[in-house]
Design the sequence.
């Protein structure tokens, strides 16, 4: 199996920036670089929601409307790492952020929770007003 670990969360004022990282360990050979990856977030008392995804080679990106123009997802397959650069953060971005690996091969990217089979434990992002 592959293990995913998120990092980079923290407390930031509105308008600030954070960069989240998701690094894979374990069985990454012929796994990491053939699958899509996704970022999801879950605020207190709310359902987990899609944030962004990236296909296997980074050529296809997708974002939820609320973060378009502010967040950028990228990946470095040589480092088995995916990033989420978050700029112009808003209080409504406060959530636990999770990274995940797609169940299907990653020609495209996916926005449904059921399309992912490996998840990290999450990293807390708190944006103060």
Sequence:
């Amino acid at each position: 199996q592959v293990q995913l670990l998120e990092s980079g969360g923290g407390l930031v004022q509105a308008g600030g920036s954070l960069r989240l990282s998701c690094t894979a360990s374990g069985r990454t050979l012929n796994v990491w670089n053939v699958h899509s990856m996704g970022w999801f977030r879950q605020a207190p008392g709310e359902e987990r929601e899609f944030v962004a995804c990236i296909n296997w080679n980074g050529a296809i990106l997708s974002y939820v409307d609320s973060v378009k123009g502010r967040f950028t997802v990228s990946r470095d397959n040589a480092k088995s790492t995916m990033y989420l650069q978050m700029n112009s953060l808003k209080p409504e971005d406060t959530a636990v952020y999770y990274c995940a690996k797609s169940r299907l091969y990653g020609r495209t990217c996916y926005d449904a929770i059921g399309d992912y089979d490996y998840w990290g434990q999450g990293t807390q992002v708190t944006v103060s007003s």
